[in-house]
Design brief:
With 452 residues, the chain is α/β, with parallel strands linked by helices. 16% of the residues lie in helices and 35% in strands.
């Protein structure tokens, strides 16, 4: 008979069980191959690393060294003095890494801060991003404001109010943005909609339709098949043959419409020769994650917890053999990023007004016609509601059901991230694990919303 693994807790380790979940603190490394069927309220390594395995639901993960999750992660905060690595999808309230950060799936977060580079294999959705190194996103980049000390590579669509980078910004998918300021800008997807593009060196636009208020760079290169409108194009080279309407040089604009300084300033741009602010200061290093004073032990010992069969309370009274822990949706909910769509009039270029990214969609209203995907949304939210006992329905689910019933599609898009967060907090507060079916169905709703 094979000998079972020992369960060893070194001296000096803090191990508590609270209503919010488990609290584990140690001076050395913390390595968990099980969560004991409970939410991890707080896991701290004061002088080492934190390594977790499985579908992790947590409040705070704090390490003086690195944080690594072999699986998926749903957490309120992650703080690491070193690197942060998650092999699966992550939904995090805030993430701070002193070194590089890498995610094997998508990442949804309010604020992401990395002292090194950032790699996301899926979609990146955030309100704010600060990174000292390069950023590579293999899916969609939907960030309200981003400051990057290196280059930015996006393989999917780009949506942002403001993106500043010291190096190259390269986007292969559609671009709908407010302002991009970078060393170089290369946009090869279509269409391209922007209030302002400014590069120290060069701007390259691929074939397709553009709608841009102003472009300023040492050189601007557009494909001969590029068409659309650009009010101001200021560069030191000749654009060559193209189908772009407008294209005033700053001197021509000043002669016809007056000083362009205000027009540029409103779009976050500066005239050639003016002081360049932003990208050099972007991507400031993330400070080391705050950790409490070391525990009074002679030498930090690692906490290593072997695999154990989880036992956890269920939300409904039906047997579930091995329920999954709370995980972030497989496709992270979209943050409502207001990137503009311009409308350029040749006789009044200074009257361009921004509209939201989803400007082509009608305004949300309880009386509007149902969306073609409406019935699928109704079925999905009812499947979630069925997983709870009568009278125990989480407020987040009730709110989502109400928004769907009222056909408030714009509000659903804007609030989907906070609804998921509220659902996670409800389960943490009551010491309950989210059933696998609830997570899977929420993923379905999120995917439907992204298609609307």
């Amino acid at each position: 008979m094979e000998k079972s693994q020992p369960f060893v807790i070194p001296a000096g380790v803090t191990f508590q069980v609270s209503d919010a979940g488990l609290i584990i603190e140690n001076a050395g490394d913390v390595v968990l191959h099980t969560t004991f069927g409970r939410t991890l309220s707080r896991v701290v390594s004061r002088a080492g690393d934190v390594e977790l395995h499985g579908a992790i639901a947590a409040g705070a993960l704090v390490a003086a060294g690195s944080v690594r999750v072999e699986g998926t992660l749903a957490a309120e905060s992650v703080q690491a003095g070193g690197a942060v690595t998650v092999t699966g999808t992550a939904g995090v309230g805030s993430m701070q890494a002193g070194g590089d950060a890498a995610f094997g799936g998508g990442l949804t977060s309010e604020r992401v801060e990395a002292g090194g580079g950032l790699t996301v294999q899926g979609d990146l959705t955030a309100s704010e991003l600060v990174a000292s190194g390069d950023v590579a996103v293999h899916g969609a980049f939907t960030v309200r404001r981003a400051d990057v000390g290196g280059s930015v590579t996006v393989h999917g669509p780009l949506g942002t109010d403001l993106l500043q980078a010291a190096g190259l910004v390269s986007v292969a998918g559609p671009t709908q943005v407010g302002t991009i300021r970078a060393g170089d800008i290369e946009l090869t997807g279509q269409p391209i909609t922007a209030r302002g593009l400014q590069a120290r060196n060069a701007i390259h636009l691929g074939p397709g339709k553009i709608q841009i208020d102003a472009m300023i760079a040492g050189e601007v290169h557009v494909d001969a098949r590029t068409a659309g409108r650009a009010t101001i194009i200021e560069s030191q080279n000749d654009l060559g043959t193209n189908a772009i309407k407008g294209g005033f040089r700053l001197a021509d604009y000043a002669e016809m419409f007056g000083d362009p300084a205000g027009y540029l300033r409103e779009r976050g741009l500066s005239a050639p020769g003016e002081a360049w602010s932003g990208p050099e200061a972007s991507g400031r290093p993330a400070p080391p994650a705050p950790v409490a004073a070391p525990l009074p032990v002679a030498a930090p010992a690692a906490v290593v917890v072997p695999v154990a069969a989880p036992v956890a309370p269920q939300v409904v009274e039906e047997p579930v053999a091995a329920p999954a822990a709370v995980v972030a949706p497989v496709e992270p909910p979209q943050v409502d990023v207001a990137a503009p769509v311009t409308s350029v009039e040749e006789d009044a270029p200074d009257e361009i007004e921004p509209e939201p990214i989803d400007a082509d969609e009608p305004a949300a209203s309880a009386t509007r016609a149902p969306h073609p995907l409406h019935d699928q949304l109704v079925d999905a939210v009812e499947k979630i509601a069925e997983r709870y006992n009568e009278g125990d329905l989480p407020p987040a689910v009730s709110h989502l059901r109400s928004l769907i019933e009222n056909r408030s599609y714009d509000e659903i898009r804007a609030e989907i991230t906070s609804i998921w967060s509220d659902l996670v907090k409800f389960h943490q507060k009551h010491g309950l694990r989210i059933q696998h079916q609830v997570t899977t169905t929420f993923n379905t709703i999120n995917s439907l919303v992204k298609k609307m």
